[in-house]
Amino acid sequence: MGIFEAMLLTIITAATPLVLAAIGELVTERSGVLNLGVEGMMVMGAACGFIATQVTGSPYIGILAGIAAGALFSLLFGFLTLTLVANQVATGLALTILGLGVSSMIAEPYLGQSGIKLPQIVFPVLSDIPFLGPVLFKQDLIFYLSIALVAGVNWFLFKSRAGLKLRSVGDSHASAHALGINVIRTRYLAVMFGGACAGLAGAQLSLVYTPQWAENMSAGRGWIALALVVFASWRPWRIVAGGYLFGAVSISQLYAQAFGIGIPSQFLSALPYLATIIVLILISHNRRMTLINTPASLGKSFVPDR
Amino acid sequence: MRIELERRPDVSKLFSILSPFIALGLTLIFGGIMFMMLGKDPIAALYSFFIEPLTEVWSLHELAIKAAPLILIAVGLSVCYRSNNWNIGAEGQFIMGAIAGSILPVVFYEWQSPLVLPLMMLLGMLGGALFAGIPAFLKAHLNTNEILTSLMLVYVAQLFLDWLVRGPWRNPGGMNFPETRTFDATAILPEMIASGRAHWGFGFAIIAAILVWFMMRYTLKGFEITVLGQSQRAGRFAGFSSRKMIWFSMLLSGALAGLAGIAEVSGAIQQLRPVISPGYGFTAIIVAFLGRLNPLGIVVAGLVLALTYLGGEAVQVSLQISDKPIRVFQGLLLFFVLSCDTLIHYKIRMMWYDLSETAGKGIR
User: Fold this and answer.
1) Rounded to two decimals, what is the model's pTM?
2) Contact A270 B286 (CB under 8 A)
3) What average pLDDT does this structure show over A88-113?
4) Contact A80 B338 (CB under 8 A)
């Protein structure tokens, strides 16, 4: 395997959690809800995924546990912001703080254990294609899921009736409500989908990226995923492009160190965060484009008239 | 069962005062349940978490030390949040303030003068304000979301500090430990009262809280902050500039976080290390909301959250459990505070059966 192939593989592994968390958050935001708790849901997914895998011995049960943890945890956010109309920004922060706390508490006994890595699924003929084969067809289940999810979300949002309803809720909840769409239910489902995706992204971290548990192991990836949604201007396929770009930036530090480039490691570790800021600047300085793309009701609470 | 909200005609005075207390009560109940699930006596656990630290003089001093940065940062954040600027990177501004203020005792350590300490505090505020100036500039002039940029800069600040104390600022006589030289006596913030360790950082916090409370309540600036926060449009009609407000609130909160940083380093740690904050910048967000974004409320809320840090240490010793429940407590508290705030603006009605469905059937 050439160095370029190996590099691509690490980029994919680094990018998959970003893509997953971002595609979930994209659906949530398309319904008009800004959930800043991605980091918290992700780290809960990582913890529960790891624990379930250690207990049952099956990383596939770990995946399910991660998804369930993320979805259940997001319900907490949904209850506060949708039923009790609490401030979305503050509640998202609360979810992140609580997630980091709860995950480090429940997974503490598993600290330092070596986990079980999710096995690769090899497509017989396709994986023999030179170069592309091993990169695209010799991956784990979560990678395939991430691509399928992006395609599925793209179809759902722009080709299905339910997707149209979801977008209308995000663009004008009052009109959607007047048309008889159940705004609150739609948003609950969108929030839970976002939570499930973030949980799956977390499970990827503790089952594929580094098969072990470490406190705060999401390390800001949830926040980068939030930035990715803005970067992608709320369009699914652009999430993949952005995610892989960020994946490349975040592993560049490993290669820079391997090649002995004389930059302090801390500066290289800061690169993904700086890159996020730069990308946000580039995307948002055009006020009109931002206005056109942003779901119009994003972050606004809805209380139906009675 | 369904839960329905009905908007109150007026803001409920009763619940604006009660809601933080209801939230605290609920957190205590949930905390007790949590300790029970960990197999500990909940009463004993809660006692050593929340009461024991208050029974001795030295731990009251520790309480003031921990409350100082929380109050300072949260007072600044309250101005941000009231004006609808979501600075969540106070942790980074805290670190940069600590670094900027430490230039004197670390790089110019030979200069010993009574001027050092005041200059350090000023540099700390400047460092924090400049670092908060980055998201402020990006939001005010390039329309970039301040939530994400301010948060990303926290990681940058942490890594920058890590590089400094392992690299150029490492103590030459420190056996290669990742820490700077210890500060000279002239660079150490003195104790406030003779009975213990509590330093002047707590004094700064009280002064800042009173000043900001006065500004919010009695000055035009305070009114401007509230108006722009509630409706940018209304603020524009009044001739207030939301762009200037972004700068004002971010720089103010950055300066206060920076002051908190240098006061903590100079008063409590007395050198720079790779990690100088147990998440004060994030906990201060909880403090700000528990204090209902009111500077005087924030003083009380800061003491409460400081107590959770001390209580966490206390239960570690007395019950042999880890310090992890602290963060869970803090997260739960913010959740309950936010949900109880609903009571201020809405009446909550529980519907045991679905009215709309029965009504619909009647028509059909």
Assistant:
1) 0.89
2) no
3) 89
4) yes
